[in-house]
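Summary of Year 1 activities. Much of the first year was spent building the evaluation harness for sequence design. The harness presents a backbone, in tokenized form, and records the residue chosen at every position. We chose the following record to illustrate the format because it has been used consistently in internal testing since the harness was completed.
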């Protein structure tokens, strides 16, 4: 079904219609300096398409929460844990509710982490819930920056990965990305390059004008026109709107943002006693102490700097006594192992990202008051891979298992768990795990990805795969001198069944 979204008026061509079905397949990039009308354009698009498609708005300034009053969008306050946001996003796709993720009040790094968790939940939803969804991200340069900023590398990687998944791989999952940015130069190229529809607004910097002209297939000398565009005027190009660059004027909207452009307001009449109002404090002000900052110390002289360099290093101070009671390392490791087991007892744990699991792990450690510094992220990934296998005590103490652990350290963190599950099956003579079991440990619903991973182990010379006459799979480990019993690769997830029977 073709649905034409009325975006306003096209110069000399009547109404400017946007093919919604084509937009869902080809995505949209909006660019324009502050005050060019980007938010107004997004609001027009959201209002006109609200009756036809589910929507999600990633709103860093809280401007789009007013959609809830008119169109019934659910406002999700981002002041939650990342695990909560991921679960909420999964339920949003399941029940097909339009939402506004309100990031107002969070600093930049918190906004990036919250948006990454929410977008990850939308992306990782079950295949049964892959309904069409319009995902609008305002100020996209915050979540997919072209260069590292003041935020941590981990937060940047999480946010950039979520935005890349949205624009590059989201189409098959029903997610159509609509991203708006003030400057193309600040937006990661691999994110911007996936859009096939463009709406370019007022731009002043030469580098941004040149990039906008290149994206629209215009000559460089035509790029000057972007400086002259009025507020709400854009140049459109793409299969969903026009096959040639088309100037359009965005129409009116039914809702308004909570913030607005500054307007000149006449100053009040000057009072006769202005000096008394300014220089004479009120009674309540006198009760508050005045805090004066001390003047900065003078810079040290050259002789003092040389003396400091020549001075011997002071002896290291003794570490302060821990506020926590002393605990044996073995007991502490057991408490951490108990937390890992509790964390993995959740049936959805296999499909949550490592970053979300790590945040949940830290919270559980604080609740249990485990003393000392919690394991770092890399150490947590290693513990996670081993905890997902959880071998019996006799196997865990055997030389074969120790050798399997050493071999797994040559692999990346995300595949160690799959390798160790296969090694455990070989050492115990158990049937080879099915593709569904390996896929869950790998953190995916795709059985074909699990098969490719096992084949990759064979390419590296770690295992040898063969099929018996019943087409059951046997995985042999030459370094361990062991192999699994035949197992059906198309069988069910046996670990889930065993856990359900135990419960």
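For this record, the design step produced the sequence shown next.
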């Amino acid at each position: 079904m073709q649905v034409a979204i009325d975006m306003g008026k096209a110069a000399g061509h009547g109404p400017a219609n946007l093919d919604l079905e084509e937009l869902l397949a080809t995505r949209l990039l909006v660019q324009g300096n502050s005050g060019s009308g980007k938010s107004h354009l997004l609001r027009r698009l959201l209002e006109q398409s609200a009756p036809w498609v589910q929507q999600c708005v990633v709103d860093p300034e809280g401007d789009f929460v007013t959609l809830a009053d008119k169109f019934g969008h659910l406002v999700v306050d981002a002041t939650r844990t990342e695990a909560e946001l991921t679960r909420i996003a999964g339920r949003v796709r399941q029940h097909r509710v339009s939402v506004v993720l309100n990031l107002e009040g969070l600093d930049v790094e918190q906004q990036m982490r919250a948006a990454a968790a929410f977008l990850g939940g939308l992306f990782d939803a079950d295949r049964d819930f892959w309904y069409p969804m319009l995902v609008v991200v305002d100020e996209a340069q915050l979540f997919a920056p072209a260069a590292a900023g003041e935020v941590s590398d981990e937060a940047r990687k999480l946010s950039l990965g979520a935005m890349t998944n949205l624009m590059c791989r989201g189409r098959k999952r029903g997610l159509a990305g609509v991203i708006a940015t003030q400057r193309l130069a600040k937006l990661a190229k691999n994110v911007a390059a996936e859009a096939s529809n463009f709406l370019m607004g007022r731009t002043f910097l030469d580098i941004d004008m040149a990039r906008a002209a290149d994206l629209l297939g215009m000559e460089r000398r035509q790029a000057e026109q972007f400086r002259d565009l009025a507020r709400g005027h854009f140049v459109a190009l793409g299969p969903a709107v026009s096959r040639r660059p088309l100037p359009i004027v965005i129409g009116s909207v039914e809702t308004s943002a909570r913030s607005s452009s500054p307007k000149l307001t006449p100053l009040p009449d000057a009072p006769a006693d202005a000096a008394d109002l300014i220089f004479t404090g009120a009674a309540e002000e006198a009760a508050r102490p005045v805090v004066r900052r001390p003047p900065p110390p003078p810079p040290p002289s050259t002789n003092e700097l040389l003396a400091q360099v020549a001075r011997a290093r002071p002896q290291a101070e003794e570490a302060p006594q821990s506020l926590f009671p002393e605990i044996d390392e073995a007991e502490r490791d057991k408490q951490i192992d108990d937390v890992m087991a509790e964390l993995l007892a959740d049936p959805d744990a296999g499909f949550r990202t490592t970053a979300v699991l790590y945040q949940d792990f830290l919270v559980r450690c604080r609740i249990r008051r485990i003393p000392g510094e919690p394991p770092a992220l890399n150490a947590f990934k290693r513990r996670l891979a081993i905890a997902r296998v959880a071998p019996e005590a006799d196997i865990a103490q055997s030389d074969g298992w120790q050798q399997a652990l050493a071999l797994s350290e040559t692999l990346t963190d995300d595949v160690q768990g799959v390798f160790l599950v296969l090694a455990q099956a070989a050492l115990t003579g158990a049937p080879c795990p099915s593709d569904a079991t390996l896929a869950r440990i790998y953190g995916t619903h795709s059985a074909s990805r699990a098969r490719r991973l096992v084949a990759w182990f064979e390419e590296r010379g770690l295992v040898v795969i063969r099929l018996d006459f019943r087409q059951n799979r046997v995985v042999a480990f030459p370094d361990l001198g062991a192999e699994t019993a035949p197992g059906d690769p198309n069988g069910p997830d046996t670990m889930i069944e065993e856990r359900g029977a135990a419960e």
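The chain has three domains: 4-250, 328-387, 390-495. Quantitative recovery figures across the full test set are reported in Table 2.
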